Model the fold of this input.
Amino acid sequence: MKRLISLVIVMVLALSVVCAASADGVQFKTEYFSVQLPDGWSIDTDDLESEEGEKSLGFFYGPEDITLAAGVYLVYYENFKNVALWNSNDEELKDYVDATLEDFKEVNAELVGIVKAGKIPLVVIKCSDSDGDFVYADTMTNGYAIEFEFYVTDEKGEKMYPITNEHIEQIKNILATFQPAA
Done:
């Protein structure tokens, strides 16, 4: 009887762990990092392209007809080879933010925040160009930036829509789950 009770307890615990894991949403995981996405989101890592200094890590998007979507990239910048944001002080982080805003000034860059994922800061900038609104976010380590480009689009990816404050909050919530790979 004790064995049966123990077996039932183990099964209940195992089932609760499985249920808890599925309640956390969908994990977008690369060899460099992971982020948690809301339930129902999709991930696409097929046919990724790379070119010198830039590697596509994949795409993810929500389940709605008009949805938030993102492309994720690993990009090397020689001029930032000595920058490690996870270990930066406030002045170094401010200098990095200023340099990033300067790089994006042609697309009407506006800092909307710095998300801290543990010790790792991710710079979040809202931009707008001839295609529409997008949000750029990144973190930098020794010249390597992990870049997220978020946009709101239709299910075919053919039309861009304005990014709202609600979208920006959703982006920040996703970025807050950023974890470097072990």
In short: The two ends are 42 Å apart (CA to CA). The CA atoms of residues 71 and 148 lie 6 Å apart. The chain is about 25% helix and 40% strand. The helical segments are 2-23, 90-103, 165-175.
